[in-house]
Amino acid sequence: MPVLFPSSMSSSRMSMSVQRYFIPVRVRAPSMRGISSRLSTRATSATSSGAGSGGQCSSHVVVRRGGARPGRRRFSGGGSRLVCSSSSSSSSSTDNKDSTEESSSASAESDSSSENEADAWRGVNVDDIQDMEPRSPPYGLVAGVGAVGAVETLYLTAVKVGLLGSLACPTNGCESVVASDWGALFGVPLPLFGFACYSAVAALGYAGLQAKANEDESESSSSSSSSSSDESIKNILLPLSVTMAGASTYLMYALFAKLGGDCPYCLASAALSFTLAASTVSGFQARELMSGAKATISTLAFILPIAILGVANLDSEPIVKDISLPYRPVPVETESSELAVEVAQKLSAAHARFYGAFWCSHCADQKQFFGKDAFTKIDYVECFPNGYESKLKGPMAPACNGNVDNGYPQWVIEDGPGGKPLRLSPGEKSVSELEGILKRNNLW
Fold it and tell me: What's the CA gap between 139 and 212, in Å, rounded?
């Protein structure tokens, strides 16, 4: 629908009028609902004016900002205009005057409201509005990572306190780290602290998911309480996750500087902690994190565990030190099963060798898998028959050089497929695993 202006309106005044409707992006323009309501009011007013004077109004409506001014009948431009034919010109003129005055008054009030709205929003950047929108951490990821960390630390705690046997680990460093002085804090197993923290994080992540679900279900009365719950969860999760990241930072230093760096469980736990901290921080705006309270709390939460662990382990002995271990053979005490005897015979026929070390707990477990009778048929090679000296890194028996990869026990089947040696991955193998390997390679 065209919007026309009186010809007598000055260019500057017209510019101001246009700017009130066509305003920059940074200012909220009047709503289309308000404009439609204003057009409807003027059209109805004009129509009723013509009908009351005994004449007829054409269907063409001329819209001008501010309404028609009394006494002005001419319009610039080629647009349509309101044309009313009346039998009584005085009556029609009076009615039209009243109608236009009412329309002008209503339009002025609406214009004033629109101007106030525009003034309130003038200078507000769209990016600033987006930055003010609240964020939330990815609670699903937080809950999942927390649950994985809780399972891992619970397992390590059970091994530390003796509820489970040897630690399942692809290297020999895990048990050494867990059994060291660094594996406890004030007499309490360190993994137990980790289990408590990961469990709390998982619970907070689940609570956050519930709060977001409730907020999505109801945007009216429940939305404010859900938003408050979300904010409370974030404020608890932030210092907790940062504390865990600080503890992991110190423990990574201890692992590589004091303990040899050979502990996959330690590395996995650190990765989980850093992931939780990053996920939690992503749920805050930069201006929130830089605020005085949150910045102070986060800094203290990161530094505090480093200080506590550092003080608690001042007298802890590093694993990387001079070690001298005399050779002590490990006795095999278990009874052999029929399958163990049969597998041992097949391994012997394929000229398989078992390379091990007397100080390796996994090698001791491997021997117990076979039992006394079956193990006598195994070609076992002790790599440290003269004991172990850390300064000399052994010395290792010549038979083991080139045959041992990165850990013990090491199985090498000389008569492998095609007559070539078959080297198995380091680590203990159950009797059934070895049976399956022999059958898959046609060595049964």
Answer: 9
Residue 202 CB burial class (10 angstroms; 0-12, 13-18, ≥19): buried
Residue 68 pLDDT exceeds 80: no
Least Cα distance to 443 among 409, 418, 425, 410 occurs for: 418
| Pairing relationship of beta strands 84-85 and 410-413 according to DSSP bridges | unpaired
Mean pLDDT over residues 317-346, rounded?
Answer: 84
CB count within 10 Å of CB 364 equals 18
**For 189-263, where are the alpha helices, taking DSSP H only?**
190-217, 221-257
The HSE-up count of residue 347 (CA atoms within 13 Å, CB side) is 28
Tell me the CB-side half-sphere exposure of residue 169, using CA atoms within 13 A: 27
State both tokens at 48: 């009723």
Please give the Cα distance from 390 to 392 (Å, whole number).
5
Distances (CA, A) of 6 to 19, 60, 415, 428: 17, 17, 105, 96
- pLDDT tens profile 232-259: 898 899 999 999 999 999 999 888 887 7
Which residues are CB-contacts of 92 (< 8 A; sequence separation ≥ 6)?
A: 49, 50, 53, 54, 55, 84, 86
Residue 179 amino acid letter:
A
Give dist(CA 254, CA 308) in Å, integer: 13
Residues 6 or more apart whose Cβ sits within 8 Å of residue 244: 194, 197, 198, 201, 273, 276, 277, 305
- Contact yes or no for 49/99 (Cβ under 8 A): yes
pLDDT at 18 over 50: no
CB 280 within 8 A of CB 137: yes
> Which pair of tokens denotes residue 235?
């404020």
CB atoms within 10 A of CB 201: 27
DSSP category for residue 422? E
**Which amino acid is located at 78 in the chain?**
G
Identify the DSSP state of 426.
Answer: S
Return the closest-CA partner of residue 119 out of 2, 26, 194, 32: 26
Q: Give the number of other Cβ atoms within 10 Å of residue 97's Cβ.
A: 14
Can you tell me the distance from the alpha carbon of 343 to that of 336, in angstroms, rounded to the nearest whole number?
11
Task: State the Rg of the chain over Cα.
Answer: 41
Least confident segment among 276-285, 313-322, 385-394? 313-322
Residue 175 has pLDDT above 70, yes or no: yes
pLDDT over 60 at 202, yes or no: yes
Is residue 190 within 8 Å of 247, Cβ to Cβ? no
**Torsions phi, psi of 413, nearest 5?**
-100, 110
